[in-house]
Amino acid sequence: MERLYLFLLALAIGFFAAIPVGGSQIEVAKRALHGHLRAAAAVTLGSVSSDVLYGFIALFGLAPLLQLPGVMAGFNALGAVLLCGLAYWTIRQSRRPQELRLENSTLNDKRWAYVTGFSLAVSNPPMILSWLYGATLARHLGLANPFSGSQKMLFIAGGALGLAGYQLLLALILKRMQHFIPTKVLRRIYFWLGIALFLLSFFFIYNAQRFFFGQAGGG
């Protein structure tokens, strides 16, 4: 029963950790709004693949590597470049949203969707903190004392399922709504999604320069 509670705790943490708007959620929303549900699922799969990778890094003792300022600066710089590129492309496509419903749309490319989801998530090392906070909570609740290897695997599986569950639920809801959204409104939504991606890129730019100048100052 204790393992079941540990799995449910990880599931809940993963679900709620996915709620704040991020690059992956925006990319899922873009595809779902245009009816590309499988591509939206591919973004989710890519994002969760990265999150699982960070789960292993956090819970199996490799996290110190990503505490190095130079490594963190590099990851944040990569995230900023990716988000700026996606923001530019999104705003550009907002001028002709009707074309995005076509089957040959880039949004319907599942391989590109997976790469997009993975790239956006892997450029966000602070995800490790979510795993560490979750593990700490599990210990405080007496569900992981000691935190064995099999329990860590179960915890990562539950967290990954929660993360994927939220994004897939978001995709299903938005796909249902797409038929009720006029093209004019869709254009505005797409434009503001692009703006949101630009704003997120500034957060990564700020973190990159903070780690970079922090390292320079320390040197």
Report what the structure shows.
The chain has 219 residues and is mainly alpha-helical. The protein has one domain (2-218). It has 8 helices and no strands.
- The poorly predicted ranges are none
Question: What is the C-alpha radius of gyration, as a whole number of Å?
Answer: 19 Å
The number of strands is 0
Helix content, binned percent: over 70%
Beta-strand share of residues: under 5%
Main beta sheet = none
Measured distance between first and last alpha carbons: 51 Å
Tally of domains:
1
What is the H/E string?
Answer: HHHHHHHH
Compute the average pLDDT.
80
The number of distinct helices, counting runs of at least 4 residues, comes to 8
Structural classification: mainly alpha
Overall geometric form: globular
Summarize the structure.
This protein has 219 residues and is mainly alpha-helical. 76% of the residues lie in helices and 0% in strands. It has helices at 2-17, 23-33, 37-59, 69-93, 110-122, 127-140, 149-177, 183-218.
Defining traits:
mainly alpha; 219 residues
Describe the protein's topology.
Elements: H1 2-17, H2 23-33, H3 37-59, H4 69-93, H5 110-122, H6 127-140, H7 149-177, H8 183-218
Helix pairs in contact: 1-7, 2-3, 2-5, 2-7, 2-8, 3-5, 3-6, 3-7, 4-8
